[in-house]
Amino acid sequence: MSMDGRKHTLLLGALMAPAAAFFLAFWLLPMARLVGVGASGPQGMGAYWSVLTNQNYLTSLIYTFVLSALVTLATLVISCIAGLFLERNRFPGRSLLLAVLTFPLAFPGVVVGFLIILLCGRQGLIGDLTKWLTGEKLVLAYSLSGLFLGYLYFSIPRVILTVMAAAEKLDYALVEAARTLGASPLQIVRDVTLPALGPALVSSGAICFATSVGAFGTAFTLATNITVLPMLIYNEFTNYANIPVAAALSVVLGVVTWAVLALARSVAGNTVTVAA
Amino acid sequence: MKRSPLFYAQLGFTLLVCAFMVVPMVLSVMAGVTTNYFVGIKSGLTLKWIVQVWDLYEKTIYLSVGIALACVAITALIGVPAAYVLAQRQGRIARLIEELIVLPVAVPGLATALALIQFWGPYPEFRTSWVFILVGHVIFTLPFMVRPVLAVMLTGNLRSLEEAAATLGAGFAQRFFSVVLPNVRGGVLAGALMVLTLSVGEFNITWMLHTPLTMTVPVGLADSYASMRLETGSAYTIIFFLIIIPLLLALQYWNNLLRRNDQA
């Protein structure tokens, strides 16, 4: 029997080997090297430290985190309202609305950036509307609000699906019980619905934050005057060939997104599934 | 049935959110077939922008489709056996491996791309070929193949089926190909559709790994947004929608079907 068990273990090892080798060669070892490159510049480990001491890097870091936090908050509120509504009600056209809300899930960041330019860029719809209404053209696309709208655009589909999946499992007997006990709709949302959705909100919020912090394509297309962290890394790498700093910054960025997801998972249980 | 005012308030809000999602898409479709977007639709409708995009970027479409299909093949070849091992073993090492393969999704694509360039840059033939992009896509999409397959393996009665086959004298290879694989088809297809969709739309890694000769569709899109007329960028976006939306619909349809079978 033990002979058989060892043979089985060997067999499982052989089945895992191709994936393990691929992962080792094309992610784990390159990542380990990147961590080393971050410490290889003239400043040595100082490259990591400069993320916090260099005024430019620090500003970019703060902008990125504040923007991502605001986007996460807004996305959670919007997705809760629309997601709970779509989950609870059945009406003609519902599945169409649902499809529309989930399409952008697969749009690359560059496309989202372009769509924001069409919506509120120099020739955008909002600009035309505001010019017609007030005589003044409102152009949001290339500023912080443009980035905010773009991040919102790719965040809502991810979060709304998680909210709906969690709401599906909600125990409606609890809602009914609260109602018969005389709770107002607002009280029900506050004391029954939101606590029940808690883990889903924490996990999808974490994914939303991590995705926003690492988002590159949208900022790339909008070419805003605000340099978010991924754009900073890209500029250091391509325009200034400042490889150690680019490496250090991307390692920091990677550690932050990983830590946010890991933290959320320890709070919300094993429901934090990463969506691309 | 009479609806409450609250219902209409929520419906209104949801419609507003849908409008935010769909209006920009409609704008880009309109811009892509308008002779001069600055003048507006009264300048006339045309297909010349679509033709122009086709002339300039036809190759990016073939490359994207080719990479996506190769990506599905590789993730299935290495991911399905890996999922089988993870389903058999629930120990600490198995959990660690599960954690590890998700890391490239948790960490921003830019970091993965820089790591690949730093490590494999000294091999220019590999660095400049389309296979370099494929490698990045496989690393990024692998968990999306492993997860649904693993889920199917854990929920079904695969274990007892396999044991039954073993007592009847079936060797491992026979069990794997005639019992395991047919039973996890649904998971493999769900994974394959997800991998296709993600690979076709991948930008963050690809932008760093591409060369002027290895442009995928999202890279071409970025290129056209930066250097072409608004109309051309829009026409290219229409073509992208035509590729990605059928994939998304198929994915939704198949996942619904899987879920319904699960509940039945």
Write structural notes for this entry.
The complex is a heterodimer of chains A (276) and B (264). Chain A is an all-alpha fold and 276 residues long. Chain A folds into 2 domains: 1-38, no CATH class; 50-268, MetI-like (MetI-like fold). Chain A has helices at 2-38, 46-53, 55-88, 94-102, 109-120, 125-134, 144-168, 172-180, 185-214, 217-222, 229-238, 243-268. The two termini of chain A are 44 Å apart. By secondary structure, chain B is mostly helical. Helices cover 82% and strands 0% of the residues of chain B. Chain B has 11 helices and no strands. In chain B, helix 2 (48-88) packs across helix 6. The longest helix of chain B is centred in the N-terminal third of the chain and has 41 residues, at 48-88. Chain B is globular, with a radius of gyration of 23 Å. The two termini of chain B are 30 Å apart. Classes of the chains: A mainly alpha (276), B mainly alpha (264). At the A-B interface, helix 1, helix 3, helix 4, helix 5 and helix 7 of A face helix 1, helix 2, helix 3, helix 4 and helix 6 of B.
